[in-house]
């Protein structure tokens, strides 16, 4: 198979009008972002497939898989954030015409991935103390433990795939990971069926594993996708100048340190965000299963809608780092500022979907009237939440393109842990500011926290020149 060099990322023509240049940049974002969006949705589909198929096995299997996933997802997002330093770094090298630096940088990313693999596998195969603290019933705990043990076998492939994505995305070939993400998702479906429900064909028999089978199916699909990607990179004419084996380089402490200084704040930022949502779910637990279910429905829908601004943000990181590498700071600034208009436009699509479709969306997930009522109320707040959420994720990715990650991390820490969680707890359970509001209190706090993040990140974006960020 051979993928075209689909995103040459040409430098802009400064003789064009401001409007023409802006539209040209938006076209580049569409070319970069569309495959990213499909890849993100494909990866999200794996979780949906696991949930649905485990749920049909038994309630205990569904609970075991859900608890297992809640343990590995934050860890994976942290390491994914660390490795995402590769995309802007490699894109910047490409923009500067420093092609000789691309494979050495890729190898340093692979070494970071190797260390991350070791840590993550050790964490996942030693979760028994955590599961014991959760006081689960014996069956659910055993399923969660077995699921994590099986999933751990695929972690090396998954993190290697993420590291190699730094190379392909950094070079502007975002359709590559899109294809292999689809391969993984399409393979995961039949493998789930085989491992969850068992398989009996002539002399070949495989016993039903229930939720534990989800872990094995995911591991195998991860390895198949990663091996296929390695074969493609080795044989494709598109990558004839980029050979993993031929361009091997030993670990370089200086380059690894540089990547970690850029990537660790991104990893912590992602961990801050996902941990906040995990904490909200735990805080809401005493309000009963009906409240938690309504909250989960709204969170699931907003997570799907979030893939569009997230993909735009990832494309912005690639394009801005390319322009900065090419020393075209005027164009980078134009794109950064015009991206605000794109963000607002996306929020004007997402918000009406949630507001006007709230009753239909709630009914799509459940027939329980009590859960529907809670979800419907939360969807109204989620519609407002969309506006600031889209702006903040756009702005934080703009700054990643400038390799500015430390200050945005502190802004997100302030907004999520400093404002959202404590304010949400007070508004949900206490009568200090208003009478206890229940679940809507946390969603109103989310609006407050993300408004703070959107404002501060936008302010920092407009001060790029004064802050000297373009010198990164």
General description of the model:
The chain has 472 residues and is an all-alpha fold. It has two domains: 34-251, no CATH class; 262-472, no CATH class. The chain is built from 17 helices and two strands. The chain has helices at 18-57, 59-83, 86-95, 102-124, 128-133, 138-152, 155-170, 174-197, 211-235, 253-284, 289-325, 329-356, 358-365, 369-401, 406-429, 439-462, 464-467; strands at 199-201, 204-206. A two-stranded antiparallel sheet has the order 1-2. Helix 4 runs antiparallel to helix 7 (155-170). The model is unreliable at 1-7 and 466-472 (pLDDT under 50).
Q: Key terms for this structure?
A:
disordered C terminus; 2 strands; 2 domains; mainly alpha; 79% helix; 472 residues
Radius of gyration: 23 Å
Distance between the termini: 37 Å
Please tell me the total number of domains.
Answer: 2
Q: How much of the sequence is in beta strands?
A: under 5%
Helix residue percentage:
over 70%
